[in-house]
């Protein structure tokens, strides 16, 4: 972590996730990041701006991971399986970002414009789902509903894995959860 902005983002992820928005003053974020409070405001106009930038950073990190090794020549199921595995691995490697995203994705602190920008980042994944619906591989439901179902199953599975499932290898849990996901969205 070299830059001041990156340090601020790193500690803000941790503090907002563990303490919440209202119990995390900017002075604490600055102190933990080893920067002056004024430096924080040189990078982020307000605390709300900081949380919106964190939202976009976590979404960008997730989307980058989701897209790794997705081959558009593969069938829809294979593409979604790759995205599933990538999403799960990202969440397990980045539990603070995952929890931040879970806590704040429906927060009133996240501006409508920020949500729309975040949704634009999901465009490649949305195109896969749309193609799946058009080719009658996936159920003909709204993309928002499908994303909500997928997100819910990912979140639940990640929580089970982060807590630790005694006697069950994580790969087995991930694969069974994917089958449940696939059964819920395939036509």
Average of per-residue pLDDT values: 93
Largest sheet data: none
Would you list the SSEs in sequence order as H and E?
HHHHHHHHHH
Structural class assignment:
mainly alpha
Mass-distribution shape: globular
How would you describe the overall organization of this protein?
- This protein is mainly alpha-helical.
- It is 74% helix and 0% strand.
- The chain is built from 10 helices and no strands.
- The chain has helices spanning 4-19, 26-33, 37-43, 47-66, 76-93, 95-104, 112-121, 123-134, 143-163, 170-185.
- Helix 5 packs across helix 6 (95-104) and helix 5 crosses helix 9.
- The radius of gyration is 18 Å and the shape is globular.
- The termini are far apart.
- The relative contact order is 0.11.
- The model has no long low-confidence stretch (mean pLDDT 93).
Provide a short characterization of the protein structure.
The protein has 187 residues and is mainly alpha-helical. 74% of the residues lie in helices and 0% in strands. The protein contains 10 helices and no strands.
Entry keywords:
187 residues; globular; mainly alpha; 74% helix
Question: What layout of secondary structure does this protein have?
Answer:
Blueprint: H1 4-19, H2 26-33, H3 37-43, H4 47-66, H5 76-93, H6 95-104, H7 112-121, H8 123-134, H9 143-163, H10 170-185
